[in-house]
Write a structure and sequence with these properties.
The protein contains four helices and eight strands; from the N terminus they run βββββαβββααα. By secondary structure, it is an alpha+beta fold. The radius of gyration is 37 Å and the shape is rod-shaped.
Amino acid sequence: MAEPAGPFHLLRAGPGRFLCYCRPGGAVCVTDAMEVWAADLGDCPAFGCQCPPEEHSAMLRAALGRGTAELSLGPGSATLRLPEEPRCPALALAQLPPAEARRQLQALVFGMAGCIETLERRLEAAVETLATSCSPQKNSARSQQLFLPDPSPRKNRTAGSALPAKRKVPGESLINPGFKSKKAPSGVNFEDS
C-alpha cells in the first residue's frame, strides 16, 4: 500500500468535490472518498500527449496548483483535462475495483493523518521557538542588560585599576559635582511676573 504524496488538491466536477493526489512512482489518483480513479503517468495514459511522462507530471502538478485542471466523470472512468497545456490536453483515469479503492482510501487517510501530525509537531516547535525568543520577560531583561550599568562594577575591574568609589553628598549638584547648594530648593513662583 503506497502512501500518498502531496500536494493535495480539491477539484469540482458538477456538484461533487474530489481530492486529487499523487502516489510515489508517478501515479495520480482522484477520489470522492467512496471511489478512486487512478492512472500511472509512467504508462503515459494521456490523450494526445506529446511529452515524456516526467514533463507531463510537472504540467499536471502545475495545472492543479493553479486550479486550472478540470475533472469529468464517465461510466467507470474519469478524465483530468489540462486546458492550458496544448501538448498534454487530458489524462485518462480508470476506476479502481472496490477492494483496491478501499486500500487506496485507507492509505490516503493514514498518509494524510501522518502529514497532519508532522505539521502539528513542526508548528508546535515553531511556536515554542517564537515564544522563547519573543518572551516579554526575556526581552525586557535583555534590554535592561543593554542599557543599565553593571550593578557590581567592582567585581568586573581588575585589582590594579580599582578606583575608590566616590559617594554623593546630599544636596550636591549632579551637573556640577562638588558644588553644594546653600539654600533649600524652592519651587517656581509664577506670581512675581
